[in-house]
Amino acid sequence: LTSVGYHVANATQPTMVTVPRVAGDFGDYAGAWKGLNKGYGLAMKLVSMSSAMETNVDVENAPPEYQKLLKKMELYQLLDVGMEEDLSRFESFNTGFDALDITSDKLGTATHKLYQVSRLVEAVNRISAAVAAYDMARKNPATLRAMNMTAEEYAINVVEDTQGNFSRLDAPLLLKSLPGAKVITQYRKYQLLMAWHYSSAFKQAFKGES
C-alpha cells in the first residue's frame, strides 16, 4: 500500500490491459477508448470516499441499463474488492496485553484507511472496464454470438481477466492447499493474473495460424 509503483499500475490497468482486450475482441480501438471514458464518467458518480476515509460504491444510482450488470458484479465480489478486507477486521482477537492490543488496533486502523485509496481506484477501474466491455458487446451482436456469450457475461469475463478476481473463493487451489503458499503469494495475485493474461493473449495471437 505504500508502493508508488503499485498505485501507478493499479490506476493505469484499464488503459494498459482492458482497452487492448476489448479492442482486440471487436476490432475497434477507438470504440474501446470511448467506452472506457464513458465508464470513467459513470464510475466517478457512483464511487466516493467519505470524510472518514471510507470508500462507498452506490450501485443504486447507476443508469437502469447497467444496474443488473453492476449488481451481479457486486454479488460476485468483482465490484468492491474491499468487502472481504472489511469482514476480516471483525476477526481480530485480544492478546490479553493492553499495550499490544492498542498498538495492534491503531496499526490495523491506519492500514485500513490507507487501503481505502486502493479500494476506490479498483472500484472505478472495474466499473469503467465493465461499461466499456458491455457497450462494445451490445454494439456487436454478431461477434458476441460467435463468442457464445451475452453482453453481461462478456463484461464480467473482461473484468475478471483484466482487473482480476481477488476473492478468497476464486483463489487458485494450489495457493489455498499448499502449506505456506498463502503467506508467500498473497500479495502476488496481480502478477500471477497478468502472467496468465499475457500468456493467454499470446496463445490467441497464434491460434490457427500457419
Describe the structure.
This protein is an all-alpha fold. Helices cover 70% and strands 3% of the residues. The protein contains ten helices and two strands; from the N terminus they run H-H-E-E-H-H-H-H-H-H-H-H. It is globular and about 65 Å long. Mean pLDDT is 81; it is low at 83-91.
Write the layout of secondary structure elements.
Blueprint: H1 4-26, H2 29-46, E1 47-49, E2 55-57, H3 64-75, H4 83-88, H5 98-139, H6 141-147, H7 151-162, H8 173-177, H9 181-185, H10 189-206
- The assembly state of the depicted protein chains is single chain
* Order of the strands making up the biggest sheet: 1-2
Shape, per Cα inertia axes: globular
Assign the structural class, choosing from mainly alpha, mainly beta, alpha/beta, alpha+beta, or little secondary structure. mainly alpha
Helix content: over 70%
Number of helices, where a helix is a run of at least 4 consecutive DSSP H or I residues: 10
Poorly predicted regions are 83-91
Proportion in β-strands: under 5%
